[in-house]
Amino acid sequence: MATEMHRARRAPPPTIKTLAEMTGYSIATISKALRESPVVAPATRDIIYKAAREVGYQANARGMALRTGKSFQAAVLMPVTAARDYEWDGVEYTQTLSGISQALDGTDYRMSVHIIRDAADGAEAARRIVDQGLADGLIFSGILAEDPRIDLLVAEQFPFVSMGRCRKDLAYAHVDIDNEWAAYAATARLIAGGHRRIALVNPQRRLSYALDRIDGFVRAFREVGLDAPMELIAEGDLSTHFGRQTVIDFLQFDDAPTAFVCINESTTLGVLSGLGALGRQVGVDVDVIAYDDINVSAYFTPPVTTFYQPIEVLGRTLGQFLLRRMEGEDPKALRQVFRPTLIARQSDDLGGRLKR
Amino acid sequence: MATEMHRARRAPPPTIKTLAEMTGYSIATISKALRESPVVAPATRDIIYKAAREVGYQANARGMALRTGKSFQAAVLMPVTAARDYEWDGVEYTQTLSGISQALDGTDYRMSVHIIRDAADGAEAARRIVDQGLADGLIFSGILAEDPRIDLLVAEQFPFVSMGRCRKDLAYAHVDIDNEWAAYAATARLIAGGHRRIALVNPQRRLSYALDRIDGFVRAFREVGLDAPMELIAEGDLSTHFGRQTVIDFLQFDDAPTAFVCINESTTLGVLSGLGALGRQVGVDVDVIAYDDINVSAYFTPPVTTFYQPIEVLGRTLGQFLLRRMEGEDPKALRQVFRPTLIARQSDDLGGRLKR
DNA sequence: TGCGAGAATAAAAACGTTTATATTTTTTCT
DNA sequence: AGAAAAAATATAAACGTTTTTATTCTCGCA
After folding, report:
1. pLDDT tens for residues A95-113?
2. Is any atom of strand D within 7 angstroms of residue B165's beta carbon?
3. Which of A86, A296, A302 shows the shortest C-beta gap to B95?
4. 3-class DSSP assignment, residue A342
5. How far apart are alpha carbons B313 and B159 in whole angstroms?
6. A173-228 confidence digits (pLDDT tens)
7. Quick one: which of A66, A83, A101, B75 is 20 to 30 A from A215 by CA?
8. CA A21, C1' D2: Å apart?
């Protein structure tokens, strides 16, 4: 008997049945009252609420889930590129998750995170989530120019919000950054500063926003009647190592670039690291413009000019849109493209030496 | 009728009942066969498995959850300090999550992430997870010297693994880094390099590992017969801003430190930023030793000496331990303390000028 | 041949909800 | 007052499992 003592099972949590016994109403009435159904009389509703509060009733998520077929989960696909061993990577995702979770706060939805290692993995995860009903809605990023996940989810009418847009003309909810504009503005600023040999450190072309950035890059040159130096577009993963290697490679050219436009904070750090290794000074030998979504560029030495868009805000919007989408709102109404703000921390004209 | 066309409901997924109809066995037998119960005849088990494969049967998680009372969720508390606006922070958590999810891969468990903003928030989240049965197991970090979550979960016998140890002597599963040793070794290295005024950039003292680090810091001095400069222990959040501000503050002292030992990569970046702003050069005016769990210090300019322990490995261990703990394994068997490796990227003796 | 034991399978209940349908109570109107 | 309509509540079934208990079948053996 002493052996049974030590695990003193806690009293089973109150169920709808407990409330039925307490109040004398049937479980159906209890359920309807708690769902705020208009068919139950206000007076009884009050009685039931009081009882619920008294015993600290919490609807059992498993029971609800089984009956309604919903999971009350908002799934997020979180990419972790296994690029090199434990590379600094995807660091902005904590902020994204934070934003999403803020939006979900106070609702019945929980956030479940599915780690994906590449695009194929992501497509498979989406498939599984839909087929097995693992979640009621889905958020994902790293959108490809032709993204099978978007095709799938649109076809299945599964609620989702993508961070980024694909190149197909489909009706789906999304949040994005105006990458075309950001690349355009960065490039144009450097051109105005006198630069002509400008490198674009870019992700792989199958990523939709890689194309957006190339578009902006090209437009900036075309607008002043020049051809964009397509050979200075580096393509790779978004790692620090890639940024560093790109600098080391490009600066060996005869006609080496005098400026770098970077995709994100980790490549920027790599670029700065590469420049440091080669003994080149930012603002003197080379100019660098970064894109940053977690406000870290201010701490680089020297601080670099940055296009900044706090990604937590995007995350929050993603979450809000997903909630509305799960309520059945038209995806066409759920689209937002953010234009980052320019934070000029350098003059980006190599101290005027390039200007004529 | 045309209006009904467009949403062509997909066929409902096969259930255990479908298999019963297909094979002629009862649902009870199907269930037992799929659970590999020894009471069902091997021949019928095979038939049932074949049928299951044929229709692509997937057990409905909601049904299982309701019946068994389990949620098949492994919850992770992810801290996001809302320190300053959108600060670079908690970036290592992506790697932690990646590691945990790797361990969970191939099991029935999914990972749900709960964002917490401070310690009180974390305690509340743990409470909710236990009370509402939101998960079958829990992983969390940011352990306080006296952590209410550990007390709670031990008392409730709820399976969990903590990243870090509290200061109470309780039996619980944990994974940790040997912070005492890391701080000791870093400090000792600097002392050996001739430094005497060494600053420790540390988190708040209520965090258990802050105390561990102070212990190590003090031990290094005591070992050579010196008193540790307690006034050079900075206490704050783990943000980049904090690192930068600490440098700016400390270097105004008459008896300013000649070296900094940093908690993590983001404070290190801040320290380097502060030094850059004051025009001090690492390795010449000041030495810096970092702690790094996402391998980013190699890219700082200049690269700094680092204690490195890839946090993804910790994450994987956390996940493995949690699985075993949820199986009922004794928590005393589930403890591991990692000792980071020293990566010496500088001589850390200010070019020998400090040595006598 | 028939009995009992053991093996294999089936039936039924349960987990906690929601919801369609049925029943009771109250209100309204003539 | 009584019938019809409306409002309020109750009953019962269902969601997909697992598990306890019951039933049937097979086989060895007297």
Report:
1. 899 999 999 998 999 999 9
2. no
3. A86
4. strand
5. 21
6. 999 999 999 999 999 999 999 999 999 999 999 999 999 999 999 999 999 999 99
7. A83
8. 36
